[in-house]
Design goal:
By secondary structure, the protein is of the alpha+beta class. The protein has 2 domains: about 60 residues, no CATH class; about 90 residues, no CATH class. The chain contains 4 helices and 6 strands. Strands 1, 2, 3, 4, 5 and 6 form a 6-stranded antiparallel beta sheet that branches. Strand 2 and strand 3 form a beta hairpin. Helix 2 runs antiparallel to helix 4. The longest helix is centred in the first third of the chain and has 26 residues.
């Protein structure tokens, strides 16, 4: 069976609500999204650095919930930095957007503890040398890239195991 026929078969199965077709296309989606994310994360590991000024660093409520255990949080930051005489402001902490609930918000604080702060008012900023307005306070870790790559292939491994083993 050629690949185009297989894709058509998976389209038909997915449109009928069959698990195999849905799983196949969900796996394709995860593969594309996670491979792009891994590529981006790897690129950010080679970004230039500069020292900037930190104006705000903490947690921000994300969404609205009356139940404290369901309240979502994400990290927030505001910092400024200069590249070639041009000043920029940044708000992104990491290439990974991390949202958690009240019970696990300590993970966000732990993430922020990894930010390099040469003094209490300054911070190391990682910026794209081709687009200096794009920046982070943390560069992608090797472990994070590995998790992303694993997330890219794990659904396909599960798919093959479930339908072809």
């Amino acid at each position: 069976m050629d690949i185009l026929n297989y894709f058509q078969q998976m389209v038909d199965l997915a449109s009928e609500g069959e698990l195999q077709g849905i799983w196949f296309w969900a796996s394709c989606y995860m593969l594309v999204v996670c491979l792009y994310s891994a590529y981006f994360q790897i690129r950010t590991r080679f970004w230039a650095t500069t020292v900037g000024n930190i104006h705000n660093l903490g947690l921000k409520k994300f969404g609205i919930s009356n139940d404290l255990s369901e309240q979502q949080y994400r990290g927030k930051a505001l910092y400024s930095y200069s590249v070639n005489g041009q000043t920029y402001e940044g708000t992104r902490i990491s290439p990974w957007v991390f949202v958690t609930n009240y019970n696990a918000k300590g993970l966000l604080l732990r993430q922020q503890a990894g930010i390099d702060m040469p003094t209490k008012d300054t911070v190391t900023v990682y910026y794209n040398p081709n687009k200096p307005q794009k920046s982070f306070l943390l560069k992608a870790s090797k472990f994070g890239i590995l998790v992303t790559l694993t997330s890219a292939v794990a659904p396909f491994l599960g798919y093959v195991s479930r339908f072809y083993a």
